[in-house]
TrEMBL record:
InterPro entries: AAA+_ATPase, ABC_transporter-like_ATP-bd, ABC_transpr_FbpC, ABC_transpr_MalK/UgpC-like, Mo/tungstate-bd_C_term_dom, NA-bd_OB-fold, OB_MalK-like, P-loop_NTPase. Keywords: ATP-binding, Cell membrane, Membrane, Nucleotide-binding, Transport. One of its GO terms (cellular component) is ATP-binding cassette (ABC) transporter complex, substrate-binding subunit-containing. It comes from the Bacteria. The keyword Nucleotide-binding applies. It holds the Pfam family ABC_tran. This is ABC transporter ATP-binding protein. GO terms for molecular function: ABC-type ferric iron transporter activity; ATP binding; ATP hydrolysis activity. PROSITE patterns: ABC_TRANSPORTER_2. Residues 4-241 form the ABC transporter domain.
Length: 384
Protein backbone atom coordinates (compact mmCIF):
# COMPACT_ATOMS: atom_id res chain seq x y z
CA UNK A 1 0.00 0.00 0.00
CA UNK A 2 1.30 3.38 -0.87
CA UNK A 3 0.62 7.05 -1.27
CA UNK A 4 1.16 8.24 -4.84
CA UNK A 5 2.65 11.67 -5.39
CA UNK A 6 2.83 13.38 -8.77
CA UNK A 7 5.44 16.09 -8.54
CA UNK A 8 5.47 18.82 -11.22
CA UNK A 9 4.36 16.13 -13.65
CA UNK A 10 3.73 16.93 -17.32
CA UNK A 11 3.42 14.89 -20.48
CA UNK A 12 3.34 15.64 -24.18
CA UNK A 13 3.05 13.33 -27.18
CA UNK A 14 4.43 16.14 -29.38
CA UNK A 15 8.15 16.24 -30.18
CA UNK A 16 8.59 19.98 -29.88
CA UNK A 17 5.86 21.34 -27.64
CA UNK A 18 5.48 25.11 -27.76
CA UNK A 19 2.14 25.85 -26.09
CA UNK A 20 0.05 24.49 -23.18
CA UNK A 21 -2.34 22.73 -25.61
CA UNK A 22 0.56 20.56 -26.79
CA UNK A 23 0.49 18.82 -23.41
CA UNK A 24 -1.83 15.88 -22.64
CA UNK A 25 -0.90 16.46 -18.97
CA UNK A 26 -0.16 20.08 -18.08
CA UNK A 27 2.18 20.55 -15.15
CA UNK A 28 0.51 19.22 -12.02
CA UNK A 29 1.40 18.37 -8.46
CA UNK A 30 -1.02 16.05 -6.75
CA UNK A 31 -1.11 13.50 -3.92
CA UNK A 32 -3.28 10.37 -3.73
CA UNK A 33 -3.16 9.50 -0.01
CA UNK A 34 -2.40 5.96 1.11
CA UNK A 35 -5.49 3.74 1.37
CA UNK A 36 -7.97 6.16 -0.22
CA UNK A 37 -10.66 5.34 -2.77
CA UNK A 38 -10.30 7.98 -5.46
CA UNK A 39 -11.88 8.70 -8.82
CA UNK A 40 -10.32 10.52 -11.72
CA UNK A 41 -13.28 12.00 -13.57
CA UNK A 42 -13.29 13.87 -16.85
CA UNK A 43 -14.46 13.89 -20.45
CA UNK A 44 -12.93 11.88 -23.27
CA UNK A 45 -9.46 13.10 -24.21
CA UNK A 46 -8.74 15.10 -21.02
CA UNK A 47 -5.71 12.93 -20.17
CA UNK A 48 -7.02 10.33 -17.71
CA UNK A 49 -5.48 7.24 -19.34
CA UNK A 50 -2.21 9.09 -19.92
CA UNK A 51 -2.02 9.87 -16.21
CA UNK A 52 -2.80 6.27 -15.16
CA UNK A 53 -0.20 4.88 -17.57
CA UNK A 54 2.42 7.23 -16.13
CA UNK A 55 1.62 6.06 -12.60
CA UNK A 56 1.79 2.38 -13.56
CA UNK A 57 5.00 2.90 -15.54
CA UNK A 58 3.62 2.01 -18.99
CA UNK A 59 4.47 5.56 -20.07
CA UNK A 60 7.48 7.71 -19.19
CA UNK A 61 6.48 11.30 -18.32
CA UNK A 62 8.06 14.17 -20.28
CA UNK A 63 8.67 16.10 -17.05
CA UNK A 64 8.38 15.64 -13.31
CA UNK A 65 8.38 12.74 -10.89
CA UNK A 66 6.16 9.94 -9.65
CA UNK A 67 6.76 8.99 -6.02
CA UNK A 68 5.39 6.01 -4.10
CA UNK A 69 5.54 6.63 -0.34
CA UNK A 70 7.92 9.49 -1.06
CA UNK A 71 10.35 7.38 -3.14
CA UNK A 72 10.92 8.24 -6.82
CA UNK A 73 9.81 5.41 -9.10
CA UNK A 74 10.37 7.01 -12.54
CA UNK A 75 13.15 4.56 -13.33
CA UNK A 76 11.22 1.45 -12.19
CA UNK A 77 9.59 -0.81 -14.78
CA UNK A 78 5.83 -1.48 -14.46
CA UNK A 79 6.41 -4.95 -12.96
CA UNK A 80 8.73 -3.45 -10.34
CA UNK A 81 6.15 -0.92 -9.19
CA UNK A 82 3.69 -3.41 -7.62
CA UNK A 83 0.76 -1.65 -9.22
CA UNK A 84 -2.22 -3.59 -10.52
CA UNK A 85 -4.05 -2.07 -13.47
CA UNK A 86 -7.53 -3.13 -14.59
CA UNK A 87 -8.40 -2.01 -18.11
CA UNK A 88 -11.69 -1.37 -19.95
CA UNK A 89 -11.49 -4.77 -21.58
CA UNK A 90 -10.67 -7.75 -19.36
CA UNK A 91 -7.08 -8.94 -19.78
CA UNK A 92 -7.21 -12.67 -19.16
CA UNK A 93 -6.02 -15.88 -20.79
CA UNK A 94 -9.05 -17.52 -22.42
CA UNK A 95 -7.52 -20.98 -22.67
CA UNK A 96 -6.60 -21.14 -18.97
CA UNK A 97 -9.00 -21.97 -16.15
CA UNK A 98 -10.16 -19.22 -13.82
CA UNK A 99 -7.90 -20.72 -11.12
CA UNK A 100 -4.84 -20.58 -13.38
CA UNK A 101 -5.63 -17.02 -14.43
CA UNK A 102 -5.78 -15.93 -10.80
CA UNK A 103 -2.66 -17.92 -9.94
CA UNK A 104 -0.67 -16.50 -12.87
CA UNK A 105 0.80 -13.36 -11.20
CA UNK A 106 1.88 -15.46 -8.18
CA UNK A 107 3.45 -18.26 -10.24
CA UNK A 108 5.36 -15.56 -12.13
CA UNK A 109 7.13 -14.51 -8.96
CA UNK A 110 7.69 -18.05 -7.71
CA UNK A 111 5.21 -18.23 -4.84
CA UNK A 112 4.91 -21.85 -3.53
CA UNK A 113 1.82 -23.75 -4.81
CA UNK A 114 0.20 -24.25 -1.37
CA UNK A 115 0.29 -20.49 -0.77
CA UNK A 116 -1.07 -19.83 -4.26
CA UNK A 117 -3.97 -22.19 -3.59
CA UNK A 118 -5.06 -20.49 -0.39
CA UNK A 119 -4.66 -16.97 -1.85
CA UNK A 120 -6.60 -17.81 -5.04
CA UNK A 121 -9.42 -19.36 -2.99
CA UNK A 122 -9.53 -16.32 -0.70
CA UNK A 123 -9.78 -13.86 -3.61
CA UNK A 124 -12.26 -16.05 -5.52
CA UNK A 125 -14.46 -16.12 -2.44
CA UNK A 126 -14.51 -12.31 -2.22
CA UNK A 127 -15.29 -11.95 -5.91
CA UNK A 128 -17.92 -14.71 -5.83
CA UNK A 129 -15.96 -16.77 -8.33
CA UNK A 130 -15.39 -19.88 -6.15
CA UNK A 131 -17.71 -22.08 -8.18
CA UNK A 132 -16.08 -21.00 -11.45
CA UNK A 133 -12.46 -21.85 -10.60
CA UNK A 134 -12.29 -25.00 -12.72
CA UNK A 135 -13.94 -23.43 -15.78
CA UNK A 136 -12.02 -22.24 -18.80
CA UNK A 137 -12.06 -18.42 -18.85
CA UNK A 138 -13.29 -18.46 -22.44
CA UNK A 139 -16.87 -19.33 -21.48
CA UNK A 140 -17.26 -16.62 -18.84
CA UNK A 141 -19.59 -13.62 -19.19
CA UNK A 142 -18.07 -10.12 -19.56
CA UNK A 143 -18.61 -9.23 -15.90
CA UNK A 144 -17.12 -12.52 -14.70
CA UNK A 145 -14.09 -11.93 -16.94
CA UNK A 146 -13.67 -8.45 -15.50
CA UNK A 147 -13.86 -9.93 -11.99
CA UNK A 148 -11.03 -12.31 -12.91
CA UNK A 149 -9.02 -9.29 -14.15
CA UNK A 150 -9.57 -7.58 -10.80
CA UNK A 151 -8.73 -10.78 -8.96
CA UNK A 152 -5.37 -10.94 -10.70
CA UNK A 153 -4.66 -7.52 -9.20
CA UNK A 154 -5.72 -8.60 -5.74
CA UNK A 155 -3.88 -11.90 -5.33
CA UNK A 156 -0.49 -10.28 -4.76
CA UNK A 157 0.16 -9.33 -1.15
CA UNK A 158 2.51 -6.51 -1.99
CA UNK A 159 0.27 -4.51 -4.32
CA UNK A 160 0.81 -0.78 -3.69
CA UNK A 161 -2.26 0.41 -5.51
CA UNK A 162 -4.92 -0.68 -7.97
CA UNK A 163 -5.67 1.54 -10.96
CA UNK A 164 -8.97 1.02 -12.75
CA UNK A 165 -9.35 2.43 -16.26
CA UNK A 166 -13.11 2.57 -16.96
CA UNK A 167 -13.48 -1.05 -15.78
CA UNK A 168 -17.26 -1.24 -16.16
CA UNK A 169 -17.51 -0.12 -19.80
CA UNK A 170 -18.26 -3.60 -21.12
CA UNK A 171 -20.53 -4.61 -18.24
CA UNK A 172 -24.33 -4.74 -18.59
CA UNK A 173 -26.04 -1.82 -16.81
CA UNK A 174 -27.88 -4.07 -14.32
CA UNK A 175 -24.60 -5.70 -13.25
CA UNK A 176 -22.65 -2.45 -12.99
CA UNK A 177 -23.98 -1.48 -9.61
CA UNK A 178 -23.19 -4.97 -8.27
CA UNK A 179 -19.57 -4.79 -9.39
CA UNK A 180 -19.26 -1.23 -8.09
CA UNK A 181 -20.44 -2.38 -4.68
CA UNK A 182 -17.97 -5.25 -4.84
CA UNK A 183 -15.13 -2.84 -5.53
CA UNK A 184 -16.14 -0.68 -2.60
CA UNK A 185 -16.25 -3.76 -0.38
CA UNK A 186 -12.80 -4.84 -1.59
CA UNK A 187 -11.47 -1.38 -0.83
CA UNK A 188 -12.80 -1.53 2.74
CA UNK A 189 -11.40 -5.03 3.26
CA UNK A 190 -7.93 -4.52 1.77
CA UNK A 191 -7.30 -0.83 2.54
CA UNK A 192 -5.48 -0.48 -0.80
CA UNK A 193 -5.05 2.87 -2.56
CA UNK A 194 -7.45 2.74 -5.49
CA UNK A 195 -7.72 5.19 -8.38
CA UNK A 196 -10.77 4.70 -10.57
CA UNK A 197 -10.89 6.42 -13.94
CA UNK A 198 -14.29 7.23 -15.41
CA UNK A 199 -16.19 9.84 -17.39
CA UNK A 200 -19.38 8.97 -15.49
CA UNK A 201 -20.11 11.17 -12.46
CA UNK A 202 -22.44 8.61 -10.90
CA UNK A 203 -19.77 5.92 -11.07
CA UNK A 204 -17.21 8.32 -9.61
CA UNK A 205 -19.35 9.42 -6.69
CA UNK A 206 -20.60 5.95 -5.74
CA UNK A 207 -17.07 4.55 -5.70
CA UNK A 208 -14.85 7.34 -4.44
CA UNK A 209 -14.41 9.24 -1.20
CA UNK A 210 -12.67 11.98 -3.15
CA UNK A 211 -12.86 12.83 -6.85
CA UNK A 212 -10.25 14.58 -8.97
CA UNK A 213 -11.99 16.36 -11.84
CA UNK A 214 -9.76 16.56 -14.87
CA UNK A 215 -10.11 19.00 -17.75
CA UNK A 216 -7.66 19.80 -20.55
CA UNK A 217 -4.78 17.91 -18.91
CA UNK A 218 -5.26 19.51 -15.49
CA UNK A 219 -6.88 18.49 -12.23
CA UNK A 220 -9.17 21.48 -11.73
CA UNK A 221 -10.66 20.33 -8.40
CA UNK A 222 -10.07 17.52 -5.92
CA UNK A 223 -12.84 17.09 -3.39
CA UNK A 224 -15.65 14.99 -1.97
CA UNK A 225 -18.72 14.54 -4.19
CA UNK A 226 -20.50 17.02 -1.94
CA UNK A 227 -17.77 19.65 -2.23
CA UNK A 228 -17.82 19.35 -6.01
CA UNK A 229 -21.56 19.81 -6.01
CA UNK A 230 -21.88 22.60 -3.47
CA UNK A 231 -18.73 24.55 -4.16
CA UNK A 232 -17.30 24.00 -7.64
CA UNK A 233 -14.00 25.87 -7.72
CA UNK A 234 -13.83 25.85 -11.53
CA UNK A 235 -16.63 26.47 -14.05
CA UNK A 236 -15.93 23.11 -15.70
CA UNK A 237 -16.77 21.30 -12.43
CA UNK A 238 -20.03 23.26 -12.23
CA UNK A 239 -20.89 22.32 -15.79
CA UNK A 240 -19.74 18.67 -15.68
CA UNK A 241 -21.11 17.63 -12.26
CA UNK A 242 -24.86 17.68 -11.66
CA UNK A 243 -27.83 16.86 -13.81
CA UNK A 244 -28.33 19.25 -15.43
CA UNK A 245 -25.10 21.17 -14.78
CA UNK A 246 -24.76 24.62 -13.25
CA UNK A 247 -26.36 27.66 -14.89
CA UNK A 248 -23.85 30.32 -15.93
CA UNK A 249 -24.27 33.86 -17.16
CA UNK A 250 -21.87 36.74 -17.65
CA UNK A 251 -22.32 39.78 -15.45
CA UNK A 252 -20.48 43.09 -15.16
CA UNK A 253 -19.35 45.10 -12.17
CA UNK A 254 -20.85 48.59 -12.53
CA UNK A 255 -20.96 51.70 -10.42
CA UNK A 256 -24.58 52.80 -9.96
CA UNK A 257 -25.50 55.71 -7.66
CA UNK A 258 -22.00 55.67 -6.13
CA UNK A 259 -22.31 51.97 -5.34
CA UNK A 260 -20.73 48.91 -6.97
CA UNK A 261 -23.29 46.47 -8.33
CA UNK A 262 -23.16 43.20 -10.21
CA UNK A 263 -25.38 43.61 -13.26
CA UNK A 264 -26.82 41.13 -15.76
CA UNK A 265 -28.99 42.68 -18.49
CA UNK A 266 -31.32 45.02 -16.63
CA UNK A 267 -31.08 43.18 -13.32
CA UNK A 268 -28.80 43.52 -10.30
CA UNK A 269 -27.52 40.22 -8.91
CA UNK A 270 -27.39 40.03 -5.16
CA UNK A 271 -23.89 39.27 -3.81
CA UNK A 272 -22.26 40.24 -0.52
CA UNK A 273 -20.40 43.53 -0.02
CA UNK A 274 -17.27 41.47 0.67
CA UNK A 275 -17.59 39.88 -2.80
CA UNK A 276 -18.08 43.26 -4.47
CA UNK A 277 -15.02 44.64 -2.66
CA UNK A 278 -12.99 41.57 -3.65
CA UNK A 279 -13.95 41.87 -7.33
CA UNK A 280 -13.08 45.55 -7.29
CA UNK A 281 -9.69 44.81 -5.69
CA UNK A 282 -9.05 42.17 -8.38
CA UNK A 283 -9.94 44.64 -11.11
CA UNK A 284 -12.50 42.12 -12.41
CA UNK A 285 -15.14 43.96 -14.43
CA UNK A 286 -16.55 40.91 -16.18
CA UNK A 287 -17.38 37.77 -14.20
CA UNK A 288 -19.30 34.53 -14.66
CA UNK A 289 -22.14 33.91 -12.24
CA UNK A 290 -22.98 30.27 -11.51
CA UNK A 291 -26.01 28.82 -9.77
CA UNK A 292 -27.05 25.20 -9.63
CA UNK A 293 -30.58 24.35 -10.89
CA UNK A 294 -31.26 22.77 -7.47
CA UNK A 295 -30.66 26.12 -5.71
CA UNK A 296 -32.82 28.35 -7.92
CA UNK A 297 -35.93 29.32 -5.93
CA UNK A 298 -39.16 29.45 -7.90
CA UNK A 299 -42.07 31.57 -6.69
CA UNK A 300 -45.64 31.90 -7.96
CA UNK A 301 -45.96 35.56 -7.04
CA UNK A 302 -43.86 38.68 -6.84
CA UNK A 303 -41.30 38.69 -4.09
CA UNK A 304 -38.71 41.26 -3.00
CA UNK A 305 -35.54 39.59 -4.31
CA UNK A 306 -37.14 37.66 -7.12
CA UNK A 307 -36.81 38.34 -10.85
CA UNK A 308 -39.70 38.02 -13.27
CA UNK A 309 -38.88 35.36 -15.87
CA UNK A 310 -40.68 33.53 -18.68
CA UNK A 311 -41.32 29.79 -18.46
CA UNK A 312 -40.03 28.08 -21.57
CA UNK A 313 -40.93 24.46 -20.84
CA UNK A 314 -41.14 21.89 -18.06
CA UNK A 315 -39.75 18.38 -18.38
CA UNK A 316 -41.24 15.79 -16.05
CA UNK A 317 -38.61 13.16 -15.30
CA UNK A 318 -40.71 11.00 -12.99
CA UNK A 319 -39.11 11.78 -9.63
CA UNK A 320 -38.34 15.46 -10.36
CA UNK A 321 -39.01 18.19 -12.91
CA UNK A 322 -36.68 20.42 -14.86
CA UNK A 323 -38.02 23.88 -15.49
CA UNK A 324 -36.42 25.85 -18.33
CA UNK A 325 -36.93 29.60 -18.14
CA UNK A 326 -35.66 32.72 -19.88
CA UNK A 327 -33.86 35.22 -17.67
CA UNK A 328 -32.75 38.44 -19.39
CA UNK A 329 -32.71 36.67 -22.75
CA UNK A 330 -30.78 33.64 -21.52
CA UNK A 331 -32.10 30.10 -21.04
CA UNK A 332 -31.61 28.75 -17.50
CA UNK A 333 -32.82 25.71 -15.57
CA UNK A 334 -34.31 25.00 -12.16
CA UNK A 335 -34.74 21.54 -10.67
CA UNK A 336 -38.04 21.10 -8.87
CA UNK A 337 -39.64 18.36 -6.82
CA UNK A 338 -42.20 16.19 -8.57
CA UNK A 339 -45.15 17.71 -6.69
CA UNK A 340 -44.18 21.37 -7.27
CA UNK A 341 -46.68 23.01 -9.63
CA UNK A 342 -45.37 25.49 -12.21
CA UNK A 343 -47.73 28.05 -13.70
CA UNK A 344 -47.22 28.78 -17.38
CA UNK A 345 -46.18 32.25 -18.61
CA UNK A 346 -44.48 34.54 -16.13
CA UNK A 347 -43.03 33.28 -12.85
CA UNK A 348 -40.49 34.62 -10.33
CA UNK A 349 -37.10 33.18 -9.46
CA UNK A 350 -34.45 34.12 -6.96
CA UNK A 351 -30.83 33.11 -6.48
CA UNK A 352 -29.91 32.69 -2.79
CA UNK A 353 -26.66 34.55 -2.12
CA UNK A 354 -25.07 31.52 -0.43
CA UNK A 355 -25.41 29.47 -3.62
CA UNK A 356 -24.56 32.20 -6.11
CA UNK A 357 -20.95 31.54 -7.14
CA UNK A 358 -18.72 34.05 -8.88
CA UNK A 359 -15.95 33.05 -11.29
CA UNK A 360 -13.14 35.08 -12.78
CA UNK A 361 -11.08 33.47 -15.55
CA UNK A 362 -13.09 30.27 -14.91
CA UNK A 363 -11.94 29.99 -11.25
CA UNK A 364 -14.13 30.56 -8.20
CA UNK A 365 -13.64 33.81 -6.34
CA UNK A 366 -13.33 32.56 -2.78
CA UNK A 367 -13.99 35.16 -0.13
CA UNK A 368 -13.59 32.96 2.92
CA UNK A 369 -11.04 34.46 5.36
CA UNK A 370 -8.51 31.69 4.78
CA UNK A 371 -8.60 32.09 0.97
CA UNK A 372 -8.05 35.84 1.25
CA UNK A 373 -5.18 35.32 3.72
CA UNK A 374 -3.48 32.97 1.23
CA UNK A 375 -3.93 35.48 -1.62
CA UNK A 376 -2.52 38.32 0.48
CA UNK A 377 0.47 36.23 1.53
CA UNK A 378 1.14 35.46 -2.15
CA UNK A 379 0.86 39.14 -3.09
CA UNK A 380 3.36 40.08 -0.35
CA UNK A 381 5.81 37.37 -1.40
CA UNK A 382 5.53 38.48 -5.06
CA UNK A 383 6.11 42.11 -4.02
CA UNK A 384 9.30 41.08 -2.23
N1 LIG B 1 -0.22 7.51 -28.10
C1 LIG B 1 -0.64 8.75 -28.29
N2 LIG B 1 -0.07 9.55 -29.24
C2 LIG B 1 -0.48 10.82 -29.45
N3 LIG B 1 -1.47 11.41 -28.76
C3 LIG B 1 -2.10 10.70 -27.81
C4 LIG B 1 -1.72 9.33 -27.52
N4 LIG B 1 -2.51 8.87 -26.53
C5 LIG B 1 -3.33 9.90 -26.19
N5 LIG B 1 -3.09 10.99 -26.95
C6 LIG B 1 -3.76 12.30 -26.86
O1 LIG B 1 -3.59 12.79 -25.54
C7 LIG B 1 -4.78 13.40 -25.05
C8 LIG B 1 -5.22 12.69 -23.78
O2 LIG B 1 -5.62 11.34 -24.12
P1 LIG B 1 -6.05 10.25 -23.04
O3 LIG B 1 -6.30 8.97 -23.76
O4 LIG B 1 -5.06 10.24 -21.93
O5 LIG B 1 -7.42 10.87 -22.53
P2 LIG B 1 -8.62 10.17 -21.75
O6 LIG B 1 -9.17 11.21 -20.83
O7 LIG B 1 -8.17 8.90 -21.14
O8 LIG B 1 -9.64 9.90 -22.92
P3 LIG B 1 -10.62 8.62 -23.14
O9 LIG B 1 -11.62 8.66 -22.04
O10 LIG B 1 -11.21 8.90 -24.49
O11 LIG B 1 -9.73 7.41 -23.13
C9 LIG B 1 -5.78 13.33 -26.19
O12 LIG B 1 -5.72 14.55 -26.89
C10 LIG B 1 -5.28 12.19 -27.06
O13 LIG B 1 -5.63 12.39 -28.41
Amino acid sequence: MASITLNALAHTYTENPTKPEDYAIREMTHVWEQGGAFALLGPSGCGKSTLLNIISGLLKPSNGEVLFDGKRVNELKPEERNIAQVFQFPVIYDTMTVFDNLAFPLRNIGVPEHKIKSKVHEVAEILELSDQLKRKAKGLSADQKQKVSMGRGLVRDNVSAILFDEPLTVIDPQLKWKLRRKLKQIHEQFNITMVYVTHDQLEASTFADKIAVMYNGQIVQFGTPRELFENPTHTFVGYFIGSPGMNFFEATLENRDQQDKLVFGKEEISVSDAMLARLKAMGANKVKVGIRPEFVHVWDGKNNDAFAVEVDYVEDLGTYKILSFIFQGQMMKARLSEDQQVPSGQIYVSFPEQWTKIYVDEYLVDITDSAIAVDQAQEISHAN
